[in-house]
Amino acid sequence: MLKTFIFVPFLALGLVAIAPQSSLAADRRGEQNEARAQMMAGKVKSIRSIEDRILPRMAGSEYIGPEFDPGAQVYRLKFIRDGRVIFVDVDGRTGNILRQSR
Fold first, then answer.
1. 59-71 residue pLDDT tens
2. 38: domain range?
3. Cα–Cα distance between 89 and 81 in angstroms, integer?
4. Is pTM, for the whole model, over 0.70?
5. Pairing relation of β-strands 97-100 and 74-81?
6. Domains of the chain: total
């Protein structure tokens, strides 16, 4: 009985710790699925073609990865240079840079 009493709170804490991560992973998968669906429908360029265009311009930066905003049809590419985060927002339809943080 005592073992069960001690184990249950730890099990509950473990489930609480996993829940936010599962939600983030589900959001990320949904974002990827939406980007793929819009790309397959010809609405936006593929992330690979966007990266092929933008990464050479960001020499000296470490590429962290992309995000996709399906409503705005904008890719956000994230980089780190000299300890600073740089976001490059790219129009998914044209591949043109919309804005870049510094």
1. 999 999 999 999 9
2. 2-100
3. 16
4. no
5. unpaired
6. 1
